[in-house]
């Protein structure tokens, strides 16, 4: 398969579009050109050619192009995912997970700012995927500007990112089922926390029952943790924090204050407490649920 995209300076949308197709077609050959004769020889043209037909041509720069989702115009990354992404994922929830990531790339390529920075942090901006990919472009004062070589390196990094996120995405359906079952068990026992055998991928997205305040889970290091649940998936604000008197306590001091002998760590931000046993973690969760700040 011959994949064509434009030459010169590249951006995250064309890089990720090519990375998606590379995951699908292992024998893909990428050419970078704006020459119409060369483009005619390609099987797929991405971000170049000023045509969109959903078959061979996937450019979004022409005035007649107006396709969008979630109020965000498509760029080439989103377009390629829209038409080919289902070959790489197992469910609609997985498809949408990747598309949400690509929407940030498409927005940036279309000059849309979707990030709101608080006034007190006005000089600090999130380091996005688009900025990450931009960093692969050659520095303009270099003597030899090899954009094609840099582009292929950027594509390889994009492939790795996509592979990681696709693995996460393909496990989200199972994660939702496990979380829903845990919530039903908690409701049946009138508990305001759920218990998991391990920390489930995507757990913050699926605990939408506002009565659930904490999640108890086994950490990969074999200890058990109690984690507060954020008010929203990407929020740092918790539905309920641990008592202020536990702040930044570790080992014997935390065990003494809580009365839980195997409790050994409370984060200074009071969103997580760790214990050596499941029983200890459940005791901590019960205490946190019933505690009221004076």
Fold and architecture overview:
This protein has helices at residues 12-24, 36-41, 76-84, 92-109, 129-134, 147-170, 172-188, 203-206, 251-258, 278-290, and strands at residues 2-5, 29-32, 44-46, 57-58, 68-69, 72-73, 193-196, 214-218, 224-228, 263-266, 272-275. With 294 residues, the chain is of the alpha/beta class. The chain folds into two domains: 2-170, no CATH class; 190-290, no CATH class. The strands form three sheets. The chain has a five-stranded mixed β-sheet with strand order 7-8-9-11-10. The longest helix is centred in the middle third of the chain and has 24 residues, at 147-170. The N and C termini lie far apart (67 Å).
Compact overview of the structure:
Helix content is 40%, strand content 13%.
Question: What order do the helices and strands come in, and which of them pair?
Answer:
Blueprint: E1 2-5, H1 12-24, E2 29-32, H2 36-41, E3 44-46, E4 57-58, E5 68-69, E6 72-73, H3 76-84, H4 92-109, H5 129-134, H6 147-170, H7 172-188, E7 193-196, H8 203-206, E8 214-218, E9 224-228, H9 251-258, E10 263-266, E11 272-275, H10 278-290
Parallel strand pairs: 1-2, 1-3, 3-4, 7-8
Antiparallel strand pairs: 5-6, 8-9, 9-11, 10-11
């Amino acid at each position: 398969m011959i994949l064509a995209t434009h030459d010169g300076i590249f951006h995250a949308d064309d890089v990720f579009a090519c990375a998606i197709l590379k995951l699908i077609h292992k024998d893909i050959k990428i050419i970078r050109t704006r020459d119409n004769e060369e483009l005619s020889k390609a099987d797929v043209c991405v971000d170049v050619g000023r045509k969109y037909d959903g078959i061979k041509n996937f450019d979004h720069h022409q005035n007649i192009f107006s396709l969008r989702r979630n109020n965000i115009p498509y760029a080439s990354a989103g377009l390629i995912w829209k038409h080919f992404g289902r070959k790489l994922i197992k469910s609609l929830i997985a498809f949408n997970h990747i598309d949400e990531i690509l929407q940030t790339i498409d927005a940036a390529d279309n000059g849309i700012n979707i990030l709101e920075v608080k006034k007190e942090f006005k000089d600090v901006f999130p380091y996005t995927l688009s900025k990450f990919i931009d960093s692969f472009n050659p520095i303009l004062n270099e003597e030899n500007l090899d954009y094609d070589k840099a582009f292929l390196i950027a594509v390889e990094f994009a492939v790795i990112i996509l592979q990681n996120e696709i693995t996460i995405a393909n496990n989200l359906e199972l994660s939702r089922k496990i979380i829903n079952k845990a919530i039903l068990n908690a409701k049946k026992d009138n508990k305001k926390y759920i218990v998991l055998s391990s920390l489930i991928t995507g757990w913050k997205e699926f605990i939408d029952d506002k009565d659930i305040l904490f999640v108890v889970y086994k950490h990969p290091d074999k200890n058990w943790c109690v984690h507060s649940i954020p008010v929203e998936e990407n929020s740092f604000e918790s539905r309920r924090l641990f008592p202020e008197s536990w702040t930044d306590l570790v080992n014997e001091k935390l065990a003494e204050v809580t009365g839980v002998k195997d409790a050994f760590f409370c984060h200074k931000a009071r969103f997580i407490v760790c214990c050596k046993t499941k029983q200890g973690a459940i005791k901590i969760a019960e205490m946190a649920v019933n505690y009221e700040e004076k």
